[in-house]
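pinning this so it doesn't scroll away 📌
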Amino acid sequence: MKLPSENPVRIIDCLKSLGLTKYEALVYIALLKLVSATASEIHEISDVPRASVYPVIDQLLVKGLVSVSQSAPKRFAAISPEDAISRLMDKIKKDAYFARDSLSLVYKERMNQGLGTEELIWNIYGIGNIKNRFSDLISGAKQEIRIIAHPQFLTPDIQQKLATMANQISIKIITPHWAGETPGKLKVYTIRQPEIPKELDMAKDMMAGGVCIIDSRSVMVILGVGEDDAVALFSESEGFVRFFVRYYNLIFNWAKKLK
């Protein structure tokens, strides 16, 4: 059976990524070409083995992608691609939300039990992954947040999140630059970056970064803000956390004197 595409394999792969098997995809595509078809006709035009046609149709019926007549023999018809893809996408979204919520409960239980004390240091690569982890860490804070950060990490949405959370927990930020007024109870201290020699100008992004301390229990240290060279270390190790809490306090006391 020829598919109406220059790349029929891709159509099959796309449908498989939406939750269909190869045989389900072939049967659905075959039915789209006809007003309706019997199981024997589906076998002939789809290249799906005769013994597999009925089990495949049963699955497509469960997924709501085909309808069946009450005639003898039974005839089957495909729903429109627009409706079919919408149903498959809705199923994926529901499954994704269910998995996210269920796994979040497992993660929160671990955090509440204080099980994150292993002497492990995790690497995080890529500016996008680092920003996502930075945002997640902030969202999980229960008591306090202490940040030393390059302005690139203090995006408007992060600033808004911090301003909202500052009504419930202590938040202190040290940064070379803060755009606009400091909202609410947020405490922001600005320290101007030292001048970088011209010969090291290309290293500015690599030297930038920051430290994020959450509840004196977990720390993320960021080095670099470039798309390719940014890397971060995350740990809940007692020694790692203690070291950067002392480092933060040193910088914070200096920032208070300059303010």
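📌 and the second one:
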Amino acid sequence: MGRRTNRQTDMRARIAAAAARLMAEDGIDDFALAKRKAARQLGAPETESLPANDEIEAELRAYRALYQADEHAQRIDELRHIALDAMLALERFTPYLTGAVLTGIAGPYAEIELQLFPESAKEIELFLLDQGVAYSTQEGRRFAGDQARAVSVLSLDWEGTALKLSVFDKRDERLALKTSQAGRVADRAGIAEVTALLADDAAPA
């Protein structure tokens, strides 16, 4: 039993490292896709020994710090500046930056994820229409505790970068929101926090 456990632990670590390389080198931003592809490459069953997202994220940070430090830092800075520009344009809808651009693990082609908390969801669509911004919409789900909340997700292009807007009820702003029921609470940052983050990034080491 001990040997099997050791083998599973070793395979879990190998899958995490391989998934991190796929995300760093191939621009994959989906953890689930990266871990499944890594498991296939290593000949491991996709239902066993799969690492958690946190494990892959740790390997991804280590990989980029070692092999992509300068180029990755520059791209994250670019994406955060674009995010702040979008947040300022959408300021009336109480925007928060979340996802990989905020945490600093975004790939070169990552989308920027914003959470919006307007008085009315229709206000955002009217604003985009008034600005001549084309967008598509679909329904998504977010979770507060074990309670699911339906949200409208608007996808559009902003300064040549994919931007995803998750539109919540104004009352949900106070809640700790997750992307899945079993997932961790998503970090988020408002305009002031993103501005401060960019200032810190620009400060001399």
